[in-house]
Amino acid sequence: MWLEILRCDLKKRKGLNAILLFFVLISTMFLASSVNNINLVLNGIGNYMAAANVGNLIAFFNTDEATAQMEELLDGLDCVSDYERDRMLILDEDGINLIEDGNKVSPEESTAYKLLGSCERTYVRAVTEDGEPVTLKSGEIAVSVLYAQNNGLKVGDEIKLCLGDITRTYTVACIAHDFLYGAEMISMERLLVSPKDFAEWQEHAGASANVYTVVTEDPTTVMNAIGKEQFATLMGCYTENIYLLLYAFDMVSAGLIAAIGICLILISLMILKFSIRFTIEESYREIGLLKALGFRERAIRKIVVAKYLVLVVIGAVLGFGFSLPLGTMLMKNISDNLYMGNAMSHWGLNACGSIVVVLFVLWMCMSFTSRIKKCSAVEAMRNGKSGERYHRRRGPLLHHRKKMGTILYLGLNDVCCSLRQYVTLLFTFCISFLLITIPLNTCNTMKSSEMLRKFCIDPEAAVYVEPSWETSGVTDADMSAFFDELVQELAKEGYEANINGGLIYPLSWEKDGAAANIATSAMVNMEQDYRDYTEGSAPVLENEAAFSETVLKDNGWKIGDTVYATIEREKRAFLITGSYTDYMELGKSCRLGREGKLEQTETFLYNYSNIYFDTKLSQEEIKEELTAVLPQYEWKTGEEIVNENVGSIKEQMEAMLAPVTVALCGLIMLIVFFMVQLFIVREQGQIAMLKSIGFSDHPIRNWFLARFLWISLGAWAISIPLSNLSNRFVLTPVFGIMGARVRIQVDLLQAYLLYPVILLIGIMLSVLLATFKLKSVQIQDIGNQE
Amino acid sequence: MEILKTTDLCKTYVINKRQNNVLRNVNLSINEGEMIGVMGPSGSGKTTLLYTISGMDGATAGKIDFFGKDLTKLGANEMSDLRLQKMGFIFQQMYMMKNLTIYDNIVLPAYQANKSSDRNRINERARKLMKKLGISDVADNEITEVSGGQLQRACIARSMINEPKIIFADEPTGALNRQNSTEVMEELNKLNAEGVTMMIVTHDAKVASRCEKIYYIEDGNIRDEYHLGKFSADADYQREKELNNWLMKLGW
Predict the structure, then answer these.
(1) CA count, 13 A, side-chain hemisphere, B87
(2) What number is the ipTM of this complex?
(3) How confident is the model at residue A3 (pLDDT cuts 50, 70, 90)?
């Protein structure tokens, strides 16, 4: 019997059931793919570290000098369970030539150290797309995804390497995910060849670098022990906590995919709840009739649940099928630098997501049908209403709205009277507005002057220059001489310029017996400190220093403390005057007072130099002008410097913005389209009644438009404070991962007007399209009124 | 003055290639101020006639002349305007907007048809109509909070709000008890006495006896018509008896 009723229902309510099926399908699709993607993103860096086998600590030396001392130290530490020395050759500027159409081309300058190593490694190994360690034959070479992107390399291209007297040409056999050397934040890149080829290179030893990978349960102890040794050639020492930061900017896009996933899950559940409630309420009258005819609760529930089970199983199976390619498609938007694993290989999660949808729908059915139990047959036929009212009427009264048009009022009244029903849409629209503002604000922040400050560059400068020396071994005197020469050359060209710039020294700092290697910057020629300080004041005198908040926190130092640095074998005392947050050395750095000079000490890094002169031209225009007259210098704009530091993520985010907007707009339009259809099916009695009393299709269409307009405007209003909250609680921590607190930049016009208006237009267009169905509602359908 | 006239009006439904001629060459006329009743057995085409004449459903053939305009030639929007401004409708079931109060349901068509500056005048008229129909005290109630009779009277008030030239009523008392039915018909008679033309489809002889002229429809044809003359409350019983005799002759 109930099978017959079910068959008739599925057949008769084709429209309603088709819409419900569609919603189940897209909900499953989004939920299943999002669960999988969130899992991949959350475990992304962990998976990558595991595949690359990166150990717990890495120490980088730029010569062979300290290897014996280092190995003696590591052998003597009980907490070290294993370590590996990876000896690599340092390639000089002319050491690498890419071959394009038979001609040699120098690669793009991107990092300080270019290393050549063997692919056969236990630790810090490069992995393929499938997460397998790279293996190479003689004559083959592997490069990181980042290197390939920077130089436009693809598999099959040729690279010519020169070191000393040897020259060899290699074919690119693999574009690998290289965890340490493929990260934008690391100023090293490595090329990998087969062990046999590398052994041949080693015989003709050139300058070499040694990277120690240490496996230990206590990286802090090892780090402190290394710090105490005060290795002169130690260029960096990082624990696994720092590894997590290497891909922080790449994780912005991954985080966005996860955020989209969470939003899609919420949207899916809300849509499901809405459509099930809507359709079950629609059949209340029939349920009441069955109840009046003497059907038992269980039999009625069986009919309702069976119908939804049929629909949800079909929808979930189809949704599961579509979720796999959708998940892969979404994951493709994540930075190529990251090894994230394959969404297809975790299909079990998609299956779990689909089962969740089935269970959710059944739970909703049971929950809504339980309301029938509580009301009488007559009340069920009256859609759960008893005819009495014990609450104040919600919504405005038409005759109290003197100025508002009838149609606008009807829309507003419907929303107010059935607020719970429209909350789903309100929520969906809010999330959509938010999902657009998050990448938008990220992009705007990344191209703002705020980012330049965080990279210790003065945004007020006219232009910037990159000193063209070897990476290390520069002193304060070299820098001053370079500035003097450049000032003279600029003066010859008619520019009265001032120049300042920073040098970064690897200094060992200590207080109360605890020591730490901290990258310390000293400015040359700086008259006034342009950098931001969060607490205290900028260091000025020779014996003053400011530390990043992370350093102060890690070492338990505070403003006013005296700390000691070993400079040129002399222990000097410094007073901590202030703290700051910036991106220098992953947020762990020190700034010396502007009068502080380390005359004999050699740098290991230097910053871009700020050039100041009076001009009304933009940095881009000045760069062009200076490149024309002084082409021997590497002129840079602020935007270029940020791009170099944050890598391709800014472009990726900008590139994602339009597709995300279009995809969201499309998704919302689709949801709105079917929701309007659902409303029309359910309200055809009222529509017919309005038609009977003289309302043409036009005002009825406007009635639907008005409802969605009010909901959209409501969502718009709610999303503005929500967007501010998301800036504070989502974006600020994301930018803060790298150690700097960045003020999130909001373009009010774009974030709160332009993009919401685009969504609004999409929503209205969708309603307009869906309301073409109104034509099919005839006055004779008046009997379908609830 | 003749305000509505049908000429050879036909309505045919084709379902699964089977043709059902519901109205067959119906010719009738309605004069201004008349109260017309349409009776007939179930399935005879009464409601279809009402819907077709009022333009709510299209005619298959024939002509419907309403104030000199052929309704069969009008477009959907023109027809809507005509229904909004010159016609009023009362249905057997009391269809109303579920999220509006009784008062707002009544003024809705008038607000839609007129400028917002006319709202004071409309409100005044709505209040008068509600008072006349005895539903002033339920003005702010929701439609689920009033009795069937009150709701039907609210429907009558809504149909009257735009001062239509004609009111079409389909079984206006069909869902009401005897007392409510009498009250509603009394109100319709009062409105008719004020000059409002009415066409009422009913199967209730008591309701039809309040009409001035009754058409008897059978198998889509007007088989006969009967003139009872203007309604008078004093001759209520006599009219009903007279009508019943006529109906009996027709095989009712």
Answers:
(1) 28
(2) 0.83
(3) low
